[in-house]
Amino acid sequence: MLSKRGYNPVQAETKKKKKREQNKLREERARRYEEKLSHRNVGQLERQISELTALEGSQGLNAHDKQILQNLQKDLAVIRKKNIHGHSVGRIESEKTKEEERKFKPRRPFIPKNPKKSAYYDPVFNPYGVPPPGMPYREKEEESSETDESVIDIPMPEGEYPFVEKKKKDKNKVRNIGRRRDEPPSTAATPINEPSNTAEAEDSHKAEAQIEDVVTEYSAQPIVRDLRKEATQFLPAAVRSQKRKSREDESAVAQNHAEKKQNQDPDNEMNLSPYLY
């Protein structure tokens, strides 16, 4: 197969690639258009087209309305051709159905006279007791005081009802809990760890009360700090040695001065005294 004169394979491949991209964009645009039409209401489209056509026959349309009418007719034709159904499928409307729709009156919601008797009553979410859509109205069942047949056959135990006293703080009275009134007090032996007579019991209660009333107090004296002494601890070693040396020199000078004063001759002072006066 002879190659054509002036054939450029790179340029041909570029054209094919460009054509493939155009086809892909065209398909993407068509898919988006069909997806948009799937959300359109067919009945509403037909109603708008009929209104615009009636207006066109009576008084005519301007350029903007004509463009809208053409777009609506185009969308409806695409929906019917490709069998695209939106959220609500259009239906054939006639004068008879329109007349029936005019006569139809929406049913008002039933509001009971006593909302609290309604089975759907709620003081916050449903204060009127209105039943939800599609549910019949029901009232609450009256609570019957009659005993169930299955419970009647159960035999009751003989004797009086068990008596239980209220809990008390006194330990001596706590022992009588669970005993009937007509039953004599228990003659059981007193435990070893409990006092045998009332006097010892009272003494033990008083001792416990005194122990409970003891309150421990904690106190502390203020801490006195010598800030000058603490500040000197942070001085460098060279400065501290220099200060120590200066103090030692001062003490040595004072000591020498005192020694010189003590070593002075008292006779010389007496000889010079007449000249001074």
Automatic annotation (TrEMBL):
Regions of compositional bias (Basic and acidic residues) in chain numbering: 22-35, 90-103
Region listing for Disordered, in residue ranges: 1-35, 89-206, 238-277
Source superkingdom: Eukaryota
Wbp11/ELF5/Saf1 N-terminal domain ranges (all copies): 4-81
Biased composition (Acidic residues): 142-151
Gene Ontology biological process: mRNA cis splicing, via spliceosome
Biased composition (Polar residues): 187-199
Composition bias type Basic residues, residue spans: 104-116, 166-178
Any one GO cellular component localisation term in the record: U2-type spliceosomal complex
InterPro entries with a match to the protein in the record: Wbp11/ELF5/Saf1_N
Protein name as catalogued: Ww domain binding protein 11
Organism whose genome encodes this protein: Schizosaccharomyces cryophilus (strain OY26 / ATCC MYA-4695 / CBS 11777 / NBRC 106824 / NRRL Y48691)
